[in-house]
Fold this sequence. Notes:
- By secondary structure, the protein is an alpha/beta fold.
- The chain folds into 2 domains: about 40-180, Chitobiase, domain 2; about 185-520, TIM Barrel.
- The protein is built from 16 helices and 19 strands.
- The strands form 4 sheets. It has an 8-stranded parallel beta barrel with strand order 10-11-14-15-16-17-18-19, surrounded by 7 helices. The chain has a 7-stranded mixed sheet with strand order 1-9-6-7-5-3-4, covered by helices on one side. A two-stranded antiparallel ribbon has the order 2-8.
- A hairpin with a 3-residue loop joins strand 6 (about 125-130) and strand 7 (about 135-140).
- Helix 8 packs parallel to helix 9.
- The relative contact order is 0.11.
Amino acid sequence: MGVPPSPPPQGRPVEGNLVRRLPKLLCSLLLVASGAPDTRSVTPLGQIVPAPASVRPGGEPYVISARTVIRVPGQSREARKARTAAEQLAGVLRPSTGYRLPVTTRGGRDGIVLKLGGDRGLGAEGYRLDSSRASVTIIAPKAAGLFYGLQTLRQLLPASVEKAERQPGPWKVAGGTITDEPRFAYRGAMLDVSRHFFTVEQVKRYIDQMTLYKINTLHLHLSDDQGWRIAVDSWPRLATYGGSTQVGGGPGGYYTKDDYREILRYAADRQLEVVPEIDMPGHTNAALASYAELNCNGVAPPLYTGTDVGFSSLCVPKDVTYDFIDDVVRELAELTPGRYLHIGGDEAHSTSHEDYVAFMDKAQAVVGKYGKTVVGWHQLTGAKPVKGAVAQYWGTAGTEQEVVDAAKAGTKLVLSPANRIYLDMKYNENTPLGLSWAGYVEVRQSYDWDPGAYIKDTPSSAILGVEGPLWSETLSTSDHIEFMAFPRLPGVAELGWAPPSAHDWESYRTRLAAQGPRWEALGIDYYRSPQVPWPGK
Ligand code: ACM
C-alpha cells in the first residue's frame, strides 16, 4: 500500500539547480536505502479520476497540519451546503490524521478555504482549486462545485487518509491550480433494488462510493417483476405483498416513505439527484400479483422469484390501470425533489405495439401532470416521446433509427450501452457474478468509447450524459455491488466528466491504478483487472 506511483508531472517548474537540490536528493537516497517510507512523495495534481479539465502544477505543496482550519465563510443556503460538504471531508480526515480540523465560518487566507464566487463561466458544477504553502483554496459559483473540489482534494491526499485509524502522514497536496468542470450534466449510476432488495444503509454506502468520482445522479430501479420496493399509501399491498420476496425467494423488502426520504436527504447532501423508476407496462409482475384488478383477466399471478423478462404487462385497456398510475406517480412525485421520473418502458414483450404506444402516451401525460420530466428506456423512442422527455439508451450498436430520429427531434439521450457500461456484465468468463448477454466487459472495453460520438448521426449536444446501470439478478450484498462497480464505475464517471481531450486509456489506467489503495483503505471490494497496473502487483 502507500502512495501510488507518480508519473513525472508536466510543466512543473524546476526548483533550483542540482547543487541546491543535492542534500534533498541524498536524503531521499538514504531513505530508500534504509527501507523507510518515502514520505515526501505527493500525488501530482492531475493524477485523479475523473481527469480534470485543466491542470497547472507549480509551487510548493500545502501540508495539512494540526493547525489546519477549514474555512467556509457566508450564511447563504449555498454556503450552508458547502459547510455540510466541508464537515463530510473533515469526517474523513480527522480519524486518519488525528487533527481537529475545525470547520469555521470565519474568513481568512490560510488552511482549507471554500469560497463561493469566482468565474461564473465555471457553471453549476465547476470549481477552481489553488494549492500553495499557505492554503488550499477552492472557489466555485455553487456549492456543488465546492463539493467536487473537495472530492479532488481528497484524491490528492495519500490513500491512507481514508483509513479509520490514525496514520503517519504527512498530508501533502501538490502545489498548483486545477480548473475543472464537467463535460456532461448527467453522470449517473443506477441500482436495481428490485431483483434483490438493498437496505437504506447499503444504498448510502454505494452513494458514498459514487460521489468520490463526481457522479451526480442516482437512478433507483424501484419496481420490477420480482419486487415492488417503495411504499405507496393508496395501494399499500404493492410494498407489503409485492415487496415481500426477491430473486431466489429471499424476504425482499421495501422502503417506507421515511426510509426513502432518508435516502433523498443523504443523496442531496452529496449533490446527487435521485431518479426514481417505476417500470411499466412490462416488468410489473409484483404489482399484478398484489392487485388482481390490474390484470386483464382479473386474476392475480403468483409472486415471481426467477430471472426471466418480458412476461408481464399492465392491462392497457382497463381504466383502473390509469387510476393506479396516477396514484403511484402522484405519490412518488410528491416525495421527489428532483426533476425526473423514470417510467421504464423496456422489454414490454407482452404488450402489443399499439397498446404500448397508447400506454406510453397516457403514462407520460401523468408524469407531466405532476410536474416531472419523463425518462424512459430507449424503447420509448418507438412510441411518441413527449417534448422534453429523456431516453436512456441501453442497446449495443448505437444505430437504432428510432433513437436517431428521436434525438433529431429533440429527445435528449442518456447513454448506457450495455456492452460498455452495464456494470452487471461479467468482466470475463470466470467472473463469478453478473450476466453476459451483452458480452464480457473488461475495464478497457468499458472506458474506451466516446459518448459524444456514439449514436449514429447524432451530435454530442443531444447527449445529456452517461449512466452505469447495475442490475441485481445475481447481486445481493454490498461486496457484490462493489466487485461489479469497481473499477468500471469510475470509468463511467470519467466519460461523463472529463473533456474529450483527456480521454486516453494509457493515462486512465495509470490514474485508475492509483485508486486501488484508496479502495483498500475504504474496504471496497474490487476486481483486480489485469489491464490495470495496480501498485504492488
Ligand atoms: C434493460 O436492461 N432491460 C433496460
